[in-house]
Give the backbone structure.
Amino acid sequence: MQKLILKISLFAAIFFVLPNSAEAWSKNFDMETVDTSIGVGTFGSTISSEHANSGNNSFKVPLLAGVENDGQHTFSLGGDLHEGDELWARVFIYVPIGFDWTAIPITKLLRIAPARADGTEWAYHSILATNKNNYGCGSETTFGFMVTGSENNSSQSPPPICQNRNTGDGGAYMTSGQWNSIELYIKVSAINGVIRAWHNGILRNEYFYPTIPSDGYIPWNRTTSWTQHHLLGWWNGGPSKNQDIYFDDLVLTNEVPASRDIESNPMIGANIIDIIAPNAPIGLVVI
């Protein structure tokens, strides 16, 4: 009888725990080998040993002068995200010396595509880089100023474009000749949405606006229309010249990371050691 009760108790524990545990996921892309799930191998992109944030290789993206939407590479999440869920997305970017950020009007670096309740596109949430003094951000002399974009919140005040946090060091620039870490956080909500963006572990942008429409969600792969989560993408005339850019160590997760910024916000972090985690807890799904 005691064995029967124990078996029933264990079954009940598994029944009630597994559904929630199974919803947790993390996706880590170290860019050491070709991984078609994020588009590596398309658009002429390659795995390259020229630069690496960790390991030996990175994801090299050749950009051709005047080619629109050049370098856009899609990726999928580990599952749909609904009201109250959270998403962290972190990637390292290497910008070679002499890289030209000139764009009309802005360069997309990391983008997440929410959907309406029927699955159609709603708007992008993005980390982007501007050219000189674009949108009044940055300076008249420096390129590659990191900003955020949230298209359906563009009329809000303040608009989710220029940084509004931690500006004491002059701002968040994609410094050439080195690796830059960018990270995007989204609290998925039509009421209490939050967007945060970090550059090299420093919080630059924080906005409290809706991140999905009413009854909307963030799909694991793409909306039923044409939008999809992606790295890079150069519209409106394309790059000014032939040039390359490199990506490494992309991490996507809906699990609260262990690291914190100086304001105690959970984040994946800018240090590669931050993604070397201990043994996964029971029930955690790593994709």
Observations:
- The mean pLDDT is 84.
- The longest strand covers residues 243-253.
- Helices lie at 2-22.
